[in-house]
Amino acid sequence: MSTVEMEVFSNAQLIILTILMFIGGEVFTSMFGLQLWKFKLKLLTKEKVASASSDISPSSTPTNNIVFDHVELGSLASKPEFQDGESLKFNSIKFLGCVVLGYLLVIHGLGVIMVSLYLAVISSARNVLKNKGLNMHTFSFFTTVSTFSSCGFVPTNENMMVFSKNSGLLLILIPQVLLGNTLLPSCLRFSIWVLGKIFKKKEYLCNYLLKNTRKLGFLHLLPSLHSSLLVVTVFGFIMVQLVAFLSLEWSSDSLSGLNSYQKIIGALFQSVNSRHTGETIVDLSIISPAILVLFVVMMYLPPYTSFLPIKDDDQNPLQPHERRKTRRGKVVENLIFSQLSYLAIFIVLVCIIERKQMKEDPLNFNVLNIVIEVISAYGNVGFTTGYSCKRQIHPNGDCQDKWYGFSGRWSDQGKLVLIAVMLFGRLKKFNMDGGRAWKLL
Question: Where do the TM regions start and end (predicted)?
Answer without folding.
Answer: 12-37, 95-119, 139-156, 168-195, 225-248, 281-301, 335-353
